[in-house]
Predict the 3D structure of the following.
Amino acid sequence: MSLTPIEPDDIEALATGAWILGAGGGGNPYLARLNLRLLYEAGTRVSLLDPKALADDDPVAVVASVGAPLVGRERLSDPQLATRPLLALQDHLKGAFRAVMSVEVGGTNALQPLMVAAMTGLPVVDADSMGRAFPEAQMASFAIADLPMLPLALSDVRGSDVIIPRAANPGWMSRIARKALGEMGAVAATCRGPRTGREIKAYGILYSTTKAIRIGRAVHAARRRRDDPIAALVEAEAGVLLFRGKVLDISRRTTDSFLRGRARIEGAYGDRGSILEVEFQNEFAAAWRDGEVAVTTPDIICVLDSESGEAIGTEMIRYGQRVSVIVLPPPAIFLTTRGLAATGPRAFGYDFDYTTVLADQAKGLSVRGGPSEAR
């Protein structure tokens, strides 16, 4: 068994890196980080499992906190709630899981499996199914690979548990879960499984947890050196600095358990005189510079505090913030034909195709269109 202890400093770096990879979504990891700090102070420890060390038939639980990020700031989760859907699903399946992993490495969901692991003693697989955060189940690598659907358990703060044994496809699973989620108050802890070791090794986004830790360490190290954390991050992760400026306006609303809206950013420094508009559905999905499409999902669009390099979530962005907008490369599976169909701008309701500012991904794409409220 290839296990690596997760140290307290790793949790701090993971929280920073995962919040960046969340692309504005996934939930602010602050509360999960505090919960893990308390568990560690009480003597609990969690280990990271190399995904290649999984046996092909090892059953793995895939956990997440789902819902509208804005509501998540009021309906606070904890390790007990995070663990409940796993226990409910084990009872339903009449079998135990071998390990736990995150559905997405973005935001608080990168720390969700650590909380579950601390409560159950299971190891955390160093992998996820998105390599970032996305709002819907059909946007996961396992769904894009057309793997069989799995039962899904949801638990809320009132003590309710809901199990969806099956659905026609990942899109319908997501739609049904969203309806249940609405009745649960737009936030719930979830568990899906079992995903096998064979499936994870073949179709998971491997070593995404260590990637998030690496990103967090790069930002923290730049701060200690009093260097620019934005520049350090862009260099370390082959990203692009898209825009720098001040938030002029923000509109957002919660509908169907999604947080949707748009931010307008006034350019500064080399971007003075320009306006960047960024739209989101939980995560940042597309950006327009002076009315022309500049970048779209599945590229990882991140809005960061220009001084600290910390991510700013779609539920936290507000007027007056000095921000830097960067773009990081997505996992390769999302750039395939099936991947773009599931996670590109048309999957979010836009009438244009994927475009990128990343040199390695630019394929002579040309898109046109003005910003419209994310659908």
In short: Residues 3-208 form a domain with the CV3147-like fold fold (CATH 3.40.1610.10). The chain has two domains: 3-208, 227-348. The first helix runs from residue 8 to 21. The radius of gyration is 19 Å.
